[in-house]
Amino acid sequence: ASYGPNPICKGCLSCSKDNGCIRCQHKLFFFLRREGMRQYGECLHSCPSGYYGLRTPDMNRCSRCRIENCDSCFSRDFCTKCKTGFYSHRGRCFRGCPPGFAALEELMECVEGCEVGQWSEWGTCSRNNRTCGFKWGLETRTRQIVKKPAKDTIPCPTIAESRRCKMAVRHCPGGKRRRPAKTKDKKKKKKNLMERAQKQHSIFLATDKTSQ
To answer: Where are the annotated segments for Disordered (predicted)?
Structure first.
């Protein structure tokens, strides 16, 4: 049936003035649109966001995606595109990727990331390759890359880290560590030497003048 130029009946095999399309032409999808308390049928070439096309011998229909935060889906339980701000992973949508997977921002997908092993124990506290002679040093621990990421653009987590530590033995056996003179002490000694030199020069000049 056709009701003149009414666009609601476009693509319909049968149409109602009040409810729109009841049956659609071949290859089109029947979509039941709801607006407040009113609902009416439409015949579409592709289903809108949040729906997928379900083909049946009786009539093709738009069925709602049952996956949370899904924008478009292949079937009711497999999402192909998530809503803005969500990452797609194995047909589901996540705010952040699960452990072992990394976010591919350009596609908003979760791909296999870089897997690392457990941290080793902290190493010996040392400084300048020495384990004595200083009060403070650094100790380091490492971990190995177990599996490289699927894409080279995905970085691996840090595999080495260091922290400040206190030396177990401050003074090395056989002698004390000589501390380098501080810059301030050097300047003070230089100033004293200059003053002494100037004083001696003044005495020499005074003596020489008297002798004349």
So the answer is: 172-212
